[in-house]
Amino acid sequence: MNYILGGGGFSSRLVNDIRDKRGLAYSVGSTYLSRRYAGSFQVTLQTKNPSAMTAVNLVLENMRRIKENEVSDEELDDAKAYLIGSLPLSIETDKEVAENMSLLDFYDLGLDYFDKYRDKIQSVSKEDVLRVARKYLDPDRYVLVIVGNLKEISSDKI
Fold first, then answer.
1. DSSP conformation letters of 13-46
2. For the segment 123-148, what is each residue's pLDDT rounded down to a tens digit?
3. Does domain 2-136 have CATH number 3.30.530.20?
4. Which end of the chain is less enclosed by CB atoms within 10 A, N or C?
């Protein structure tokens, strides 16, 4: 879900809508900090002061859309291909292997996690993405931090 919404760089919905289609942001993306019990989901963007509120509203609109409608087959296939293909890059060095092994132990994922990873990612469905978006995204409850010249930022309603 995160990869499709904003974590997938130039292939994400947020980049396509806010940066490419509308030219409102130099960068935009989302990330989540996974923790054992709870973590945060964040969207960050860089835009001009006058377009800040428009860009924020587009982020919220995209969050609502991914909660209301299933993602496309193409979006899901692209996300799966990236996640599966990028796994080996995260365990190239001894340091990365050690870090990942400690995380496997901390989160009690089992030593066979990497063996099962491909199948687990492949098993994710459009319904799973929708379920996760509905459970974890709440565009009506969030903390908004704006760094900029408040005199130049539009007072458009969020």
1. HHIIIIIIIT--EEEEEEEEE--SS--EEEEEEE
2. 999 999 999 999 999 999 999 998 99
3. no
4. C
